[in-house]
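# step 3/5: fold
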Amino acid sequence: MVNADGTEPGPVTIPSNSGGGLGTLTEWWAYDGSMDPTPATHLRGSCSCGWRGETLYPVDWDRAHEQQPYEYDTSGPESDWLQHTEEVRSALVPLPEDLAALLEQVNEQVSVLSDREPLVALRAANILQQHTRMSQQNAARTIERDGTGPAAVGTALGCTPSQAKDQLRTYR
């Protein structure tokens, strides 16, 4: 969301009736002015990597209130974000085709199992997590040993250098 002055509002704070804290919302429809004194005026595509779309899309709050949030046309910012993610994806380190196919196959099988045999799916997911953790640790050690910088790691993973540093630290 974008305010009339071009700034981005922070999360909208909502009172919590079930405990001692306040909740927050960041969904676009929460910025209509009902929980915050000033409604945001525009939608803009954004990404957790820090990217912000250039195009601002005006919000018609009267129309938005007549519809459910998922019915309102947010295709402009969504399209901008999809284009951004394609650009990021194209810069990622490519996987060998046979590995990509195997990963896709495993993902499909575990997804099917999650509906039909959820206990089996959980066991498979746990095994994958264990193997993934070991691979992440080994790769992180090798990256550090080789002196690969956070910018290169970020490009390979599709994240910022700072996020890459955090991921490597987590993997260790």
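# step 4/5: annotate
Helices lie at 61-66, 75-91, 97-116, 118-146, 150-157, 161-171.
# step 5/5: archive (pending)
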